[in-house]
Amino acid sequence: MFPGGGVKIRLGGEMMKAIITSQDRKLVEALQSSALYGSYQEAFRLATGLGLFLRLASTDHIPRVPERAEQNAFCGALNEHQNCEDCQKAHGHLRVMNQGGGATDRCFAEMMETAVPVQCGGRTVAWLWTGQVFVTGEKRRNFTEVGKVLLARGIAGAEVQRLKKLWEATPEVTDEKYRSVAVLLDAFGRQLGDLANRLIVESTPREPEAVTKARRYIRENLRDRLTLEQVSRSAGLSPHHFCKVFRKAVGINLVDYINRSRVELARQMLLKHDARVSEVAFEVGYQSLSQFNRSFRTVTGESPTEYRRRLLKPEALASAG
C-alpha cells in the first residue's frame, strides 16, 4: 500500500544532471517518432489502461502534440486552462526524488504519478511519465480540498465543477498493479536510453557530407587510435572548421561521439555469451580496461558487467567468465 504522505519507488541508477538543449529536444522528438516507442506505448496502454508520454528534462513540456492526449482528462484540462503551479511543484518534487532512477508520488489532486529518467551519455534528456490515477485502498477521496486549491489559483467556480466531473471519472487501480506498472516503465526507460545513443551515432539524411564522411571513417577505424587530425582529414576540412561543423550537426564533440560509438559496438559484442569484457574493451579501441569501464558507465549509466548481468542468462554469464 502506498502511504498517505506519498511514496518514492527507487529503481536504481546514479544521480545525473538534467540540462535541456536544442539537440535534446530533437533527440526526444526522434524517440517519440520511433517504431519502438510507438509499439510500446500502444502495448502499455492496452496492458495497463494507462497513458504513457515523454516530457523534456527539467520542464513539463510534452514536445509531441498528439501525445498530450495520453494525459488523464482532468490533468489535460487543467493544463490547457493554465499552467498549474501545483502540478509543476509536484513534478519538480518527483524529479528531485528520482534523479537517476524511477519514483512514484501523489500529486495535490490525490492521484499517483510515476516518472522515469531517459538517460543518454550520462545526462537525463527526458522523463518517461505515466499514472495520473487513483490507487485502490487509499483513504477516502474528497474533492473539497482539491477544489479549494483550484479556486485559490483563480479558476472560476463553473470551471471547477467541470474539472470535478473529470476528477471523479479518473480510473482506479490496485496498489499491486501500480507497482508493476512502475517496474515496466523503468525497463522501457532503459531501452529508450539505449535507443537514444544509437540515434546519435547513426547518420541522418540531411547532415553535411563532411559529417557523413567522418562518421564512415570512424566506423571503419573504430578499433584503432583515432585523432582529430585523421578524422578531419577524412572529411576534407581543417581541424578547427571540422569541430564546428561536426558539433553543430551531431550535437556532441568528436571525442564524445567516438566514445559513444565504441560503447555501442561493445554493447552488441557483450551480448555474445563467450565474449569476455577485457577482450571486448580492446577490440573496440580502448587502451585499458579501466578506461573502457569509465566510458561505458558514462554512456549507459551502468558498468559492462552490470549490463551483461541484466541482459544475459546466468548460464551464459558463467560460460563467459
Give Rg in angstroms: 23 Å
Q: What is the helix content? A: 55-70%
Order of helices and strands: HHEHHEEEHHEHHHHHHHHH
Count helical runs: 15
Shape: elongated
Q: In angstroms, what separates the terminal alpha carbons? A: 41 Å
Mean pLDDT: 81
**Main sheet properties:** 5 strands, mixed
Return the structural class: alpha+beta
Please, what is the oligomeric state? Answer: single chain
The poorly predicted ranges are 1-19
Question: What's the domain count?
Answer: 2
Q: Indicate the proportion of strand residues.
A: 5-15%
Number of strands: 5
Structure overview:
Strands 1, 2, 3, 4 and 5 form a five-stranded mixed sheet that branches. Helices cover 56% and strands 10% of the residues. The protein contains 15 helices and five strands. The protein has 321 residues and is an alpha+beta fold. The chain has two domains: 22-199; 204-320, Homeodomain-like (Arc Repressor Mutant, subunit A, Orthogonal Bundle). Helix 2 runs antiparallel to helix 7 (175-201), helix 5 (143-152) packs antiparallel against helix 6 (157-168) and helix 7 crosses helix 11 (254-270). It has helices spanning 22-33, 35-48, 73-81, 85-97, 143-152, 157-168, 175-201, 209-220, 228-235, 239-250, 254-270, 277-283, 289-300, 304-311, 314-320; strands at residues 52-56, 103-106, 112-120, 123-135, 172-173.
Write a compact overview of the structure shown.
This protein is α+β, with helices and mostly antiparallel strands and 321 residues long. It is built from 15 helices and five strands.
